[in-house]
Design goal:
The protein has a single domain, classed as Metallo-dependent phosphatases (Purple Acid Phosphatase, chain A, domain 2). It contains 7 helices and 12 strands. The longest helix has 16 residues. The radius of gyration is 19 Å and the shape is globular. About 45% of the residues are buried. InterPro entries: Calcineurin-like_PHP, Metallo-depent_PP-like. Pfam families: Metallophos (PF00149). This is Phosphatase.
Length: about 325
């Protein structure tokens, strides 16, 4: 199976590990342990997961030269993604999800990435990120929302799907703010006012690359979580922007969101990308996991999640740490 799709420019091969970053014996063993855990060597044979799924974030491919000053290697993302898909295809996964920013700078960069994702033997779910809306050729530097939704094959930018006793809720956290709105429109002005208010409050996330969800999407989200609980399902959110802990890349109304979500006992996890260094926090019984961004550094980052009754094991590869997310009953 050939994963070496070529962009308009030359795609460099991923550099040897010793040319990318120092790797300690512990780090080298981490990858081996990760693979062994996925294969089942480190698990009790009587405790097989309910299901597994693949996690990716911020592939952010563009046919552009690297920007070492911010540690982003755009063209390398195709090789990294190919490596991740190859690993995913070694396992029986219920689905693979990419948590936003699949491309950067323009939708013209999307075809080679989608070609790679089509090689996945598991269905691929898409979350939209702020960079997915950027355009070098579109008016005001953004692509029309309808064009973005169509390019990603999305009938609507937020949606739900159920897997083995879980409901996954995909959000569009670019809805409110200035990310996807044309400048000087009413929607853009409302987003600008929100950013100005947050800046006056000296909130670290008062940045134009952050967004949140509007009232209609919020109502839909709450209805979906309540319905999941009514039917005995657990719920997980798949979004682009983080909510917890505090960070400059967080959802614009992160404080409101994380105070509201514990009111829904069915909700167990919020998965997201956007903050490329990754991270984890727990608040009010909800796990908040930020996946490392694949575009960041010359090293790779992705994960496989193993879902059990009482926990989710995050099996990290390369830069992505391995973690255990405890699930309260």
């Amino acid at each position: 199976m050939n994963f070496r799709a070529r962009p308009r420019g030359r795609l460099p091969a991923l550099p040897p590990r010793d040319q990318t970053a120092p790797v300690t014996a512990e780090a080298s063993n981490h990858t081996a342990r990760s693979a062994a855990t996925v294969a089942g060597a480190d698990r009790d044979v009587d405790a097989e997961p309910l299901f597994r799924f693949g996690l990716l974030a911020d592939v952010q491919y563009a046919d552009d030269d690297p920007r070492p000053q911010i540690d982003r290697y755009y063209r390398y993302s195709l090789g990294k993604l190919a490596e991740a898909i190859t690993e995913f295809n070694r396992h029986e996964l219920a689905f693979v999800v990419h948590l936003g920013d699949l491309v950067d700078h323009d939708l013209e960069n999307l075809p080679p990435v989608l070609n790679l994702l089509r090689q996945s033997t598991a269905p691929v779910r898409q979350v939209l990120g702020n960079h997915d809306f950027l355009s070098r050729t579109g008016p005001n530097g953004v692509s029309a929302e309808a064009d973005v939704f169509s390019a990603f094959g999305l009938e609507r930018p937020y949606y739900a799907f159920d897997v083995a006793g879980w409901r996954f809720l995909v959000l569009n956290t670019n809805e409110v703010g200035v990310i996807a709105a044309e400048p000087q429109t009413e929607r853009w002005l409302q987003g600008r006012q929100l950013l100005d208010r947050l800046a006056a409050e000296k909130r670290p996330n008062a940045n134009a690359w952050n967004g949140t969800i509007g009232p209609e999407q919020t109502g839909w989200l709450e209805d979906q979580i309540e319905d999941a609980g009514t039917h005995g399902l657990r719920a997980a959110i798949l979004a682009h922007h983080p909510v917890f802990p505090d960070h400059g890349d967080n959802l614009l109304d992160d404080h409101r969101m994380r105070e509201r979500l514990p009111d829904f006992p069915a909700l167990k996890v919020w998965f997201n990308g956007h903050q490329h260094q990754g991270g984890y926090g727990e608040h009010g019984g909800v796990n908040y996991l930020t996946l490392c961004g694949m575009v960041q550094t010359r090293r790779n980052a992705y994960a496989i999640a193993e879902v059990y009754h009482d926990r989710i094991e995050i099996i990290g590869f390369d830069r992505e740490p391995t973690r255990t997310l405890k699930i309260n009953s």
